Amino acid sequence: MEDLTRLVAVEDVRRVMARYVYSADHHRWDDLAGLFTLDAPFVASTVDGPDQVRMTGRDEIADGLKARNRADSVLIHHLFSSEIDIESPDSATGVWAMEDIVTTPHDGEMHGYGHYRVRFTRSDDRWLIAGLRITRLRLDWTHPDKENRS
Questions:
Q1: One-character DSSP codes across 34-94
Q2: Around Cβ 1, how many Cβ atoms within 10 Å?
Q3: Residue 149: helix, strand or coil by DSSP?
């Protein structure tokens, strides 16, 4: 694979993940699910615990995320350093350091830190997520009834 072709593929994959976090932060669950292949698995876990979420395929991902995220919640996703490997013209993997914050008025705030591990495939000249695993190394909770009082 030529260097320029590889660099374009890396940037295309990076943009898929940028659309993923933008869609999540704006509650655009159908758009987010559209970034996945029809049968892609979506898994979230903590490093030392069982899977917290497991969904498969676009419909289940869209429906599951709609059900898990209240309309009045505020979501913030940050992607940091990435390591992207283009394995072939139609296959890639990547790891992103991540941070996410989910705030809901009645439930408080979840603040997670960890990594996205993602498999990609290219179909009809478009990169799609073929599998995504979120592994949180740390997960902090702040509940509204436990406010700091000075």
A1: TTB-TT-EEEEEETTS-EEEEEESHHHHHHHHHHHS-TT-EEEEEEEEEEEEEEETTEEEE
A2: 10
A3: coil
Strands laid side by side in the 91-104 sheet = 51-56, 41-46, 126-142, 108-123, 91-104, 74-88
pLDDT at 139 over 70: yes
For the residues of 77-110, what is the DSSP string, one character each?
EEEEEEEEEEEETTEEEEEEEEEEEEEETTTEEE
- pLDDT of res. 150: 41
- Residue 144 clears pLDDT 80, i.e. is over it: no
145/105 Cα distance (integer angstroms):
11
Q: How do beta strands 126-142 and 41-46 pair?
A: parallel
In whole angstroms, what is the distance from residue 61 CA to residue 66 CA? 8
